[in-house]
Design goal:
A hairpin with a 5-residue loop joins strand 2 and strand 3. This protein is mostly beta strands. The protein has helices spanning 60-69, 111-118, and strands at 4-10, 15-20, 26-41, 47-59, 75-88, 94-107.
């Protein structure tokens, strides 16, 4: 079985090209690189974080989705398959490639979270508009109704 699932951020905007498909119509091909966190423990116990940079290619509707909605910094979950290949470059050297052929891609965070990331860090969400909510976001339960709750001790 050849199946891969990744979650990471685009390192740059997708590179989109159109090619003639088998039936003569235009086929969208979008290429992008995902920075995927890799955690490992060093011998001293320090938790280090590095990233792997994974090349992805999306065809057809998936490519059109990437062109329209994905941009540098967008956090996505991608599922697909690994495909290897090779070609000979201008210097006559054989170059080997490994890509993830995208079968499905989804946003991994909300638009609000993406916007706060682009503003340089965490932006606290505003408190609910109701006056019954405390500063921690919990609602006070009026006295006398606690006996009606299904999760009482």
């Amino acid at each position: 079985m050849n199946k891969v699932i990744l979650m990471g951020r685009l390192t740059r905007d997708p590179d989109v090209r159109y090619s003639n498909g088998q039936s003569g119509d235009q086929l969208c091909i979008a290429r992008y690189t995902l920075a995927v966190d890799r955690r490992f423990n060093r011998q001293g116990g320090d938790d280090q974080q590095n990233a792997d940079f994974i090349s992805c290619v999306a065809f057809g509707r998936s490519g059109e989705f990437a062109e329209k909605y994905l941009h540098q910094g967008t956090k996505v979950v991608v599922s697909g398959r690994i495909q290897t290949g090779s070609y000979t470059n201008k210097e006559g050297q054989k170059v080997y490639t490994t890509d993830v052929v995208v079968e499905d891609q989804e946003f991994a965070e909300s638009k609000r979270a993406q916007d706060s990331e682009s503003q340089g860090g965490y932006q606290p969400q505003s408190a609910p508009a109701t006056s019954d909510a405390s500063a921690e976001g919990f609602m006070n339960i009026p006295d006398g109704t606690k006996d009606d709750l299904p999760f009482k001790k």
